[in-house]
Design a protein that fits this description.
Blueprint: H1 6-69, H2 73-87, H3 92-106, H4 110-114, H5 117-133
C-alpha cells in the first residue's frame, strides 16, 4: 500500500474544496434567485390583478352614476359594457342587488335606479378595501 504523507492529503483536500465551493455557492445562489424571482412574479401578478379590478370597479361606478344622471345612449352603452365586466367580480349578494338595478335601468326607471347608487358604491368600496388589506 502506498503511504501518503499529510501534506499531500491536505493539499488534495484543499484542491477539492477550492473546486467544489464555488460550484456549490453558484448553485445555492441560483436557487435563491429563482425562488426570489417566483415571489416577485406572484407579487406583480397580484398587484396587476388588484389594479385591473380597481379599474373595472371605478369604471362601473362612474358609468352607473353617469347613466342615472345623464340619460344618453353613450352613457347607457358605457354602463352596459362596465356592468358585464364588474358582474363576475362581485359576491352573490351584490350581484342580486345589481341585477335589480340593471332591470330598472333597462326599463328606463331612472328615479328608482338612482337610489341604488350610494349603497352599491359603498358595497364596492368595501370590496376594494378588503382587497387592499389582504395584500
Amino acid at each position: 500500500m502506498l503511504n501518503f504523507d499529510s501534506t499531500v492529503n491536505i493539499a488534495t483536500i484543499l484542491a477539492l474544496v477550492a473546486i467544489v465551493c464555488p460550484v456549490l455557492t453558484a448553485i445555492i445562489d441560483n436557487v435563491f434567485r429563482l425562488i426570489f424571482k417566483c415571489i416577485e412574479n406572484k407579487q406583480k401578478r397580484y398587484e396587476q390583478d388588484i389594479l385591473h379590478k380597481r379599474e373595472i370597479f371605478e369604471n362601473f361606478l362612474s358609468s352607473f352614476n353617469e347613466v342615472c344622471q345623464r340619460r344618453e345612449y353613450e352613457t347607457l352603452s358605457r354602463y352596459a359594457s362596465s356592468y358585464s365586466l364588474i358582474y363576475i367580480y362581485l359576491p352573490q349578494s351584490i350581484r342580486d342587488e345589481l341585477g335589480k338595478v340593471n332591470e330598472l335601468i333597462s326599463q328606463r326607471n331612472w328615479d328608482a335606479a338612482i337610489k341604488y347608487v350610494d349603497p352599491i358604491s359603498a358595497d364596492i368600496y368595501k370590496i376594494m378595501q378588503k382587497q387592499q388589506l389582504t395584500r
